[in-house]
Each structure stands twice: as structure tokens, then as C-alpha cells.
Design brief:
The protein is built from twelve helices and 17 strands. By secondary structure, it is an alpha/beta fold. Strands 3, 4, 5, 8, 9, 16 and 17 form a seven-stranded mixed β-sheet that branches.
């Protein structure tokens, strides 16, 4: 086994605190990565607090992982020690089902293996995430970080980035399209950046008038206050696509009314029932669609990273020390971050010295 050190929570609602644990020994197709940075995703908080009801403890969160290769297995040929790499939301899949064959491992019909709070499909050991000093991952699920990319700012691309890039690419968003993004947070600001880079005219739907200046700085053409009925009615039949990043149940019907005929409302934030229900009339009368999307496959995630390097796209971040993680959780829940926290894992050494 491989001794490791990180931060974990031991039960729902418990604070994150230092924890020593063991990872598996290196397999022939594994890559051991020394973690330099790890993004803080809102889903880390949901899992740590068991908001979704399926968390297992002790739990080491973190699925926006970047670092450098420290060791490779005997069968690994695509990476060498020192390479800049990343790991996202999954670390394995069956590699045999139709979805895996199509490069859509996130939809693996036998269940992808999540980066943390899951079971390794070969030996059944618990998977632990990136709030730690190192991680050992099957080489097929390691991503190459472009040389020009800043590792800290790139970390959230491995979740927030691919979660918004994948549905926009799948839908074919590009020049001549009008795209609206609902919500300006970790996902929303990346959706805006990708939409602009793909050539669409981008509008932000927000409940906060204070968001207008920062949205325009990101490249949006228009800002619509979703609580203003007159503004919403004026936008009726406007958009080809809506990218909805809001992570809690909310009324989709007013937004769907702003879609053109054959328009598509894409959900990437809500995990759970839609409440209130979507009106069938609203869909039928304009042949409109409501679809969902989950991250992206490994090949598409690599494509996204290369696209970001080519277009100078990165996540707007605030770097923190690992000892500040509990405060960062609370601030994230309050929306007090622009737009993602990223942990500098060099700060782990400070917690060891203090122990």
C-alpha cells in the first residue's frame, strides 16, 4: 500500500481535518501523481455533508486535480515522470459497453468509477480524491495539461470546465446562435467564456442586478433580470440554447418561454426532481427540448483543455491553503467566491508540521 496524507471528513456535517490513509500500490497501467492543486467543487460540499444521501466515510473529496507525474506503471507509455497532468471526476469505467466504446465513459452502462467516495472496480477499495498529497489513477483516465496552461487556474476546468463545454459542443453552439446562461457562478462563468469563444451571442439570466458588470466583463452581450417579468416577456422566443447552471430546483417554464422554436434548455446543475413541473404546452407549441448533460468523456475533456490553451481560457479562482477548507465550504455555499476556490497543496506540509 502507498501511505498518503490529506484532509477528510469522518461523518456528515463533520469538519474537514487532516487524515493519514493508504492508497493502492501502483499497478502496471497506473500513474502516480503528486498533486499541486485541487479545485473546490460545490459537489464536494454536498458529498461531505451527505446532502444527496449516498456519501461514505471517511471521505476525501476533490475531483479537480492537477499535478505532476511522480511514477508510472510498467505498461504505461503515454506519460513520463515530470509531466503536467490532471484527473477529473472519474478514474475508471468498464471500457466495454457502447458508451465507453464511443468515448463517453461518463455514461458507462456499468457505472463509471468516481474519483472519490466510490469503489475501485478491480479490488473494491474506496476511492479517495484530491484533497491530498498524491493520487494513483489508471493511465486511460489521466489528462495531459497543455504546457501553456496555469495549473492552479486549470484545476476547475476538470469539472466546471468540461461540465459546460461538453453540452455546448454536443448541441453545436457556434456562430449565429443566441445562447443564454442561467446563473453566474463556477459553472456559469465558464459557460459564458466557452459560449463567447465558440462564437455565440451570449446573454446572462440572473436574479442579481449587481452581476451585470462582471457578466459584461466576461463577454456577454445582454443581461436579463429573471425576476423582472417585463424583461422576461420581452425575451420571449429569443434564444437557440439555454445553459442552466443553477444547482437547486427552480422554475424552468419562464426560461423555456424565451427559447425559439426548436430551442433547447440544457440542465447541468440540478440533481433531483424538477420543481415545479415543466409545462408540456410550453414544449409542444415550439417543439422545444429540455435535456441534461454530465461532464464529458476523457477524449472530450482533453479536447476542452486544448481548446482552453488555444483560446486563453481559464477559470477565475481564489487560491487557498488546505487549512482554510472549512471556511471555503461555508463561503461557497453563501456564493462568496469569484468563481472557484483552488487549494494549493503545498500547504499540506504546514498542517503536518502543526500536528
Amino acid at each position: 500500500m502507498t501511505p498518503s496524507y490529506g484532509f477528510a471528513c469522518t461523518e456528515a456535517g463533520a469538519p474537514m481535518k487532516p487524515w493519514s490513509f493508504e492508497r493502492r500500490d501502483l499497478r502496471e497501467d497506473d500513474v502516480r501523481i503528486e498533486i499541486t492543486h485541487c479545485g473546490v467543487c460545490h459537489s464536494d460540499i454536498h458529498q461531505a455533508r451527505n446532502d444527496w444521501g449516498w456519501a461514505s466515510y471517511p471521505l476525501v473529496p476533490g475531483h479537480e486535480i492537477v499535478g505532476r507525474v511522480a511514477e508510472i506503471g510498467s505498461a504505461v507509455s503515454g506519460y513520463k515522470v515530470g509531466d503536467k497532468v490532471g484527473v477529473g471526476c472519474m478514474v475508471d469505467s468498464c471500457q466495454e459497453c457502447p458508451s465507453c466504446a464511443d468515448g463517453l465513459e461518463q455514461y458507462c452502462e456499468n457505472g463509471m468509477t468516481q474519483t472519490y467516495a466510490d469503489k475501485d472496480r478491480r479490488d473494491g477499495q474506496t476511492t479517495y480524491g484530491g484533497y491530498s498529497d498524491q493520487i494513483i489513477v489508471r493511465d486511460k483516465f489521466v489528462l495531459r495539461m497543455p504546457e501553456s496552461i496555469d495549473l492552479a487556474a486549470a484545476a476547475p476546468l476538470l469539472c466546471a470546465g468540461i461540465t459546460t463545454y461538453s453540452p455546448l459542443k454536443h448541441a453545436g453552439v457556434g456562430k449565429g446562435h443566441k445562447l443564454a446562461v442561467v446563473g453566474l457562478g463556477g459553472l456559469g462563468h465558464m459557460g459564458i467564456k466557452f459560449g463567447v469563444a465558440l462564437g455565440a451571442e451570449v446573454t446572462l439570466f440572473t436574479r442579481s442586478p449587481a452581476k451585470e458588470a462582471e457578466a459584461r466583463a466576461l463577454g456577454v452581450t445582454n443581461v436579463i433580470l429573471s425576476t423582472d417579468e417585463a424583461q422576461m416577456q420581452a425575451a420571449a422566443g429569443t434564444f437557440d440554447f439555454i445553459l442552466d447552471t443553477v444547482p437547486v430546483p427552480h422554475d424552468l417554464n419562464p426560461y423555456i418561454s424565451t427559447l425559439k422554436r426548436d430551442g433547447t434548455h440544457i440542465i447541468v446543475g440540478v440533481i433531483g426532481p424538477l420543481d415545479p413541473p415543466v409545462s408540456g404546452v410550453n414544449l409542444i407549441l415550439g417543439r422545444k427540448s429540455v435535456i441534461g448533460s454530465l461532464i464529458g468523456g476523457i477524449a472530450e475533456t482533453q479536447e476542452m483543455l486544448d481548446f482552453c490553451a488555444e483560446h486563453g481560457i481559464a477559470c477565475d479562482i481564489e487560491t487557498i491553503k488546505i487549512a482554510e477548507i472549512n471556511e471555503a465550504f461555508d463561503r461557497t455555499v453563501k456564493g462568496d467566491v469569484h468563481y472557484r476556490f483552488v487549494i494549493d497543496m503545498a500547504s499540506l506540509a504546514e498542517t503536518k508540521q502543526a500536528a
